[in-house]
Amino acid sequence: MKIQSAVFQMSAPDLKSCPDSDRLEVAFIGRSNVGKSSLINLLTGQKDLAKVSATPGKTKLINFFLINTAWHLVDLPGYGYAKVSQRDRREFSEAIADYLERRPNLRWVFVLIDSRLSPQAIDLEFLHWLAGRSAPFALIFTKTDKLKAKALQENIAAFLARLATVCEGTPDVLKSSAKTRDGRAQILGFIQDRLAEEVS
Hints:
alpha/beta, Rossmann fold, seven-stranded mixed β-sheet, about 35% helix, globular
């Protein structure tokens, strides 16, 4: 897939504020500080399309980007937010859950996992919940340039082994590095194939 245009469309605090649209949507979500904004900028080929922040949990809204005037890339708030109130945390969680459960044109969810870390309970808990929703999902292991190939494969294998204890089946696995640009073509190709399945 060639990205010819990528335009920020709008931000929404909750499902009812999301834009009316008949375009298919692909959503990205992950734990705070997993590198989601950097990955979105890598995929779209725009340095500052998604705002990269050193402060975890900066994304607090559902952000819509129109890609090639044909489909939406949706940037969801991270789970495991930085310093926010319990009320804000509940509101974020409700907005994410409502979107993932009730958005009719959502077709695929990419869950980002930090490849440097051992399996994190917060990721496993979210995936356990997501597995019961209607939209299929895939994993993207980020920051792969930080590890040697053997350590990377061991971390991915360890995560999948833990995931198998809370979810049935094995999701598709992709890898990425915003620094080296590794994984960009594979992820875009994956998205292209999934969207093509919907219109075929």
